[in-house]
Predict the 3D structure of the following.
Amino acid sequence: MLRGDQGRRHAGLRAAFDRHHLSADPQGHRRPHPASYPGYGRTSAKNGAIFRWVFNYPANYWDGASIAITHILNEEGGDLKGKNIALVYHNSAYGKEPIRTLEELAKKHGYNLTLLPVDHPGQEQKSQWLQIRREKPDYVVMWGWGVMNQVAIQEAVNIRYPMDHFIGIWWSGSENDVRPAGAGADGYKALAFHNLGSDYPVYDDLRKYVVEAGKAAGAGDQLGTVLYNRGMYAAMLAAEAIKTAQEMTGTAAITPEQMRDGMENLEMTEAKMTALGLPRFGPEFKVTCENHGGNGYGAVAQWDAAAGEFRLITDYYQSDQDVIMPLVEEDSAAFAAENNITPGCN
């Protein structure tokens, strides 16, 4: 488990370059090594009929963009006509991921979208936030990573932008991103595809048998933090996929091909998560050959500066599949055509 700045940098670098993975290695989807990208990676890899070895459940970037808009819709009583939403994004393939989805949702809901790119590494954002101060958008959505997140939140505090109208993607929503701004960051929101905090039976066991027993890799003070929980969630999904593969084959020593089949038949239910000691730790979803990305559910968390923690403030709800699935089909079909792939499930 990566901690503090190291964990934040790792998560950000992974997110910043993830889309390049498949474009730089177009045969990667064919090789017998299943790849899991929870909450990142190429969004259209959700189409398992084309990306047979790649899985991006439980949610992807386009889901995140839609969930942010759904939350804003809920805050505005279901009407966004004439509202102004600004996207502050890392000027990279990663940062540009939500643009098409936000543009399509703008056509559907009637809001105005302003795009504000931030060049790497993101330490200079004065001009973007001066524009925000001048134009006063109703909401700001952020697709940032690393130091860009800290700088953006501090700039928002400096211009007194209402933090409860500022929403970051899940890579812009860890304690490392908000703490440098102090009390001014209170109310900042971030998307999430897993739950937060440490009030779970499995964490009680970790404290008792690992931390208090002196077996923790470090001080043991990261339990319940956003990035720790993300690692826990990814580990849970991997373990359950392995278990599914073992049950399907009747053997413990599974092959890469069998692991792929286990991932493709993974089903996460509330009963299963509760039995693992992680009740409501993530959304329920089922993977199929046609759908390697889950059901597109996510939630919104909010920073409580006084308590020093993020808390989920919504239930998990689904992204707008009527908008997202045609985009997935279009992008994955283009990839298949470029790489001479015949879609299919067997």
The chain has a mean pLDDT of 92. The radius of gyration is 20 Å.
